[in-house]
Design a protein that fits this description.
Elements: H1 2-33, H2 50-57, E1 63-67, H3 75-94, E2 99-103, H4 112-125, E3 130-135, E4 141-146, E5 149-154, E6 157-162, H5 172-195, E7 201-206, H6 217-223, E8 228-233, E9 246-250, H7 258-269, E10 273-277, E11 281-282, H8 285-291, E12 293-298, H9 304-310, E13 312-314, E14 317-321, E15 324-330, E16 340-353, E17 365-366, E18 373-375, E19 380-389, E20 394-398, E21 401-404, E22 423-432, E23 459-464, E24 474-477, E25 480-483, H10 498-509, H11 513-516, H12 530-535, H13 537-568
Helix pairs in contact: 3-5
């Protein structure tokens, strides 16, 4: 009988052990083919968007990502590294392991010459370096160079991703939080661009004195990573723009002919998209630097009637803003050598973004002699969204008028800046009415057959009342032009958000609004209250050190009492 019981017990234990191994095997197999993750955060911090999951599942090949964020770094950048690793882990799973990645420390090389070579190579690939100060254990400080970015590799192609938003007007914690909010958008946009078989075409318009090529070379080079870039004139040729997903009009200074306006109008009616950057006021900054006085006067580009019909008006005035960039001014006494001092220049407002995905979480955007934008009823079914605006302390400057450089020595009282958040960039989208409705078209294009549309298909346009937002400075050496980075202030070396704003604007106009929605993600900063920590420091220290020990002792005493009582019976 005992042998039978022992045998039954062995069989029972063996079956239980076999069942356990079987369950482990099934769970292991299911976990390899079926991915499940529960995101309990209120803002769904660890959940990829539908657009991201779709793009990852449809990847045509393998994408390898090199992230240059490793090694000894300040704690904030370690948080950024952890967030990017968690995101790329998700990419790896949802792409069926087509996305792989590696974290690299670009400063790991001991040889200084080799390290500088690596730095130069990363800079030429498009990554932005950042110098940060770090403290050692002995209380000293050292400066380190970081490249908070990544390089994507696909079929021999490379594309950089800069992960850090560095707005100097925000605390470091806020900049890092915004950077983490933007990670999914930046990586997915780069992945889609580098793996896409379809490359859309964008046209820079010429023929009306628009910015010449070196003045827009930096943004053109950046856009060429995603689109084919062409430059050319309309020349009154009907439907010449049909192959382009977006047309960019960058600071024209000559009037538009009715023929060119009709071609642009019908391009819009066909569902085209236009980025207008218009200066309604002419100001010669070069003459101002030489003579200290210049005239600001109205520039008639013959576009007011057209834009009015679409639902926007650019006023003939200038914005002055306390939140502004600086210019160098000679402050030396007459007869002494020149002494240039940076002073705030009210006519160079630093514009703020809004909650729209195009301008959300951007650095301040530097403008030069911007004007006021008004939105009107217009024609058609049009939605209007302000993208850029001045600060809470702004005013307008009437034109025509003299601008005197000596005014920087006589600052206006703060009370004079009574206007708030003046619009400078506006998005219009929907179905537009043609600006040539009820007009004779034969008089405009007499020799061409026109299939006229008086109401547009769904279309979009962005109107900006400053043409210099897209212009990069140009330095000449040996008679050759060398473009500087767009948004970089030559005086302070600070980089503003002009390039990111233009990239986002073109991306939205080109039909990537689903990607732009990723920029709406908001992660809440849950920071500790430093005041409460300081006042209750001792209490929290005791609670964190003694309370866990007390719980262990209490558990041991209770377990001993229960054990003693059980065996006493």
């Amino acid at each position: 009988m005992r042998r039978m019981r022992k045998k039954d017990r062995i069989i029972k234990n063996s079956l239980q052990l076999l069942l356990i191994f079987l369950i482990i095997g099934v769970v292991g197999y299911m976990s390899s083919v079926w991915y499940f993750r529960l995101d309990l955060t209120s803002e769904k911090k660890f959940t990829l968007s539908k657009t991201t999951r779709r793009i990852l599942k449809e990847l045509p090949g393998d994408v390898f990502i090199q992230v240059y964020l490793d090694g000894d770094m300040p704690i904030g950048f370690k948080r950024l590294k952890r967030a990017s690793r968690e995101l790329l882990d998700e990419f790896h799973v949802y792409s069926n392991r087509k996305v792989s990645f590696d974290f690299i420390n670009p400063s790991d090389e001991d040889n200084m010459k080799e390290r500088n070579r690596i730095y130069k190579e990363l800079f030429e690939k498009g990554l932005h370096p950042l110098n940060v100060k770090s403290s050692d254990k002995e209380g000293g400080q050292s400066q380190k160079t970081l490249f908070p970015g990544a390089v994507l590799n696909y079929n021999g192609l490379e594309m950089p991703v800069n992960m850090l938003i560095n707005n100097p007007n925000l605390p470091a914690s806020e900049n890092l939080n915004r950077s983490m909010e933007n990670l999914e958008y930046e990586f997915v946009r780069a992945i889609e661009a580098i793996t896409s078989d379809t490359i859309y075409k964008i046209a820079f318009l010429e023929g009306h004195g628009e910015l010449y090529e070196p003045q827009v070379e930096d943004i053109s080079r950046e856009l060429s990573r995603y689109y084919t870039i062409d430059r050319g004139q309309i020349g009154g040729k009907y439907r010449i723009l049909d192959d382009y997903v977006t047309v960019i009009i960058a600071k024209p200074v000559k009037p538009f002919s009715e023929a060119d306006k009709l071609v642009l109008d019908q391009y819009l009616m066909q569902g085209g998209n236009i980025l207008w950057m218009i200066d309604p006021v002419a100001v010669d900054m070069d003459s101002l630097m030489y003579s200290s006085i210049t005239l600001a006067f109205l520039r008639d580009l013959k576009l007011n009637d057209m834009l009015f019909k679409y639902g926007v008006r650019i006023n003939g005035d200038l914005i002055q803003d306390i939140q502004c960039a600086q210019i160098p001014v000679n402050t030396a006494i007459v007869g002494n050598p020149p002494k240039y001092t940076p002073v705030p220049w009210l006519f160079y407002p630093l514009l703020e973004g809004t909650g729209h995905p195009i301008s959300r979480n951007l650095n301040l955007v530097r403008a030069e002699f911007a004007s006021v934008l008004d939105t009107l009823a217009g024609g058609g079914d049009i939605r209007k969204s302000v993208l850029l605006r001045s600060s809470d302390f702004s005013k307008t400057f009437g034109v025509p008028n003299l601008i005197n450089l000596a005014d920087v020595k006589k600052p206006l009282p703060r009370e004079a800046f009574s206007r708030k958040k003046i619009p400078v960039a506006v998005l219009l989208e929907g179905e537009f009415n043609s600006a040539f409705r009820n007009r004779s078209l034969k008089a405009v294009l007499p020799d061409q057959e026109i299939y006229f549309l008086d109401k547009s298909k769904p279309a979009k346009m962005i109107v900006i009342s400053d043409g210099d937002i897209i212009r990069n400075d140009v330095r000449f050496q040996g008679g050759k032009p060398f473009p500087l980075p767009l948004g970089q202030d030559r005086l302070t070396q600070q980089t503003y958000g002009n390039k990111d704003f233009i990239l986002n604007a073109v991306s939205y106009l080109a039909g990537q609004s689903d990607l732009m929605e990723l920029r709406e993600r908001e992660l809440k900063l849950r920071l500790l209250d430093k005041a409460k920590l300081s006042s209750g420091k001792l209490k929290w220290q005791l609670m964190n050190t003694l309370f866990p020990v007390f719980l262990v002792l209490l558990f041991g005493i209770i377990a001993g009492m229960v054990r003693k009582r059980r065996y006493a019976r």
